[in-house]
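Let us practice reading a record.
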Amino acid sequence: MEILDANFPALPLFFTMFLIIYFIAYLFVFRNWNIQIRPEASSCLISLAHGTPAVFLACYSIFFIDSKQGFASRNTEFQNLVLDYSISYFLMDLLHYLVFCPSEVLFIGHHLATLFVFLTCRYLVLHGAYAILVLLVLAEITSACQNTWTLANARRIDVPTAAKLYDLLSPPFYAFYTVVRGFAGPLFVYEMGVFYLSGEADHVIPKWIWVSWIFVVTVAISVSILWIWNLWLELYRERRGKLGKKMR
């Protein structure tokens, strides 16, 4: 992997890959979709290309490359490669938002904050990838389901099959997302915070860096919890409204 890292320009290559996938999605895969939703659909496709592979790559780097890694461990070459993969995706999706959705300040802010965490871990401190990649797994493990749900939601008004898929996916997706973001995520961040507060990582990860990481992740999880809570409320209102109509 050291030879690969030295001679293989991973970041620009991965970015080019996501750029090509985006253009293929926009120009061919979703060419018959409404022009207003084609950018969002193309964004979903690059998210699909990133999410699930990132989960497998991150898990492989954590559990098989070096299973003895901890919160203060030096990044392995493979972990750096996984970070480059995710950095490339977030750069591409950030470009998408800046071009097509500049008013989506929340998503732009999320991507910038995420890039700060990944870039400082990968290129500044060169330590802590274990924690960042576990968080990546927790963030992206719902990706396939979420992007399928998003695409179905985008077409449910004019495509009956999409509407059925959306209705079918919503409860299990919401439940899965709630468990991951509402319970597993906060638990891991708590463990991460306890370790860094002990000072055991201060010699390799400056305090301002890990404090920034904890802050960014905590805010991201809080926003995710608020988002899924609102979706649960919306689902409850929809189901209650349909039940009320049937009883009339």
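A brief commentary: The chain has a mean pLDDT of 93.
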